[in-house]
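1st attempt posting a full record on here, be nice pls
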Amino acid sequence: MEFKEILENRRAVNFFDPEKDVTEAQLKEIVEDAAKSPSSFNLQPWKMIILRDSEQKGKLQKLAFDQPKVSEAPVVIILLADREGWKEGNTTLESHFKNNLKPDQREWFISTTAALYGSSEAATQAFANKNAGLFAMSLMYSASNLGLHTHPMDGFDHEAVRKEFNIPDQYWIPMLICVGQKKADVEILPKAWRQSFEEIVLETK
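the predicted structure (as tokens):
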């Protein structure tokens, strides 16, 4: 697809067709496309839990204000933002260092990421969330490119989901993302109002 077509087709769909699956090949392509997203120092502080099993999705639905799309969508992603992605010893950081940097850069690299992202709880949380958000948006555009629909969700009990799915404390859950195809008889309304260029720009200096 052309990029503008991808933008237009990307919609937050509420009603998924449970009979139309997302293949493993499609899901892998979507995730690997999203993995090309930019991230702070290329630290890629994102992970995900993928739910396909109806029983597991049912458990999640109860913790997401009982929204039917959680069970209807063939795939539901629990997106995880790694608040420890900047720390020495983190597996993703170490893989990045091994593959992309030189040994003599290590001291500088570790001290710099710690200073930027480990200076406070707020800095750590912001680091994790902003990078996971970049990954999430890329994932939704990639799904749109394959003719699939998505719905990012923040309507869920964060701590209850953490407990139910045994998610370690280092991860924040920025959102759930439903992935699939919309029900054939559901009409997609025109995109809602968006701010114009003039409304978005507060000031030009």
